[in-house]
Q: What sequence folds into this?
């Protein structure tokens, strides 16, 4: 696993998922500019802002997949499922060891 994601909260980094790195692994933490949504201070509470938020979903364009895109997507799902099934016991054992 090359990179993990997380959130800085109350002076700590909370990872989205456990990293499979050995204890003592040194890391570099950089602030990501990727955010979900807009910051609270940029959200208006006035009626115009509320109306804009209500209208926003209607402005979205539908996602259209070509047959080639759909085939690649299906193949990726099959490969992912096969990997998950092949590593299920190994991952279950790691989880069991966490609770010993």
A:
């Amino acid at each position: 696993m090359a990179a993990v994601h997380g959130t800085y909260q109350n002076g700590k980094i909370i990872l989205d998922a456990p990293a499979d790195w050995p204890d003592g692994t040194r890391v570099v933490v950089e602030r990501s500019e990727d955010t979900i949504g807009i910051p609270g201070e940029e959200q208006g509470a006035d009626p115009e802002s509320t109306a804009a938020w209500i209208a926003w979903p209607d402005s979205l364009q539908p996602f259209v997949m070509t047959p080639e895109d759909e085939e690649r997507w299906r193949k990726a799902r099959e490969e992912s499922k096969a990997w998950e099934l092949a590593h299920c016991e190994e991952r279950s054992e790691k989880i069991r060891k966490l609770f010993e």
Summary: The chain is about 40% helix and 10% strand.
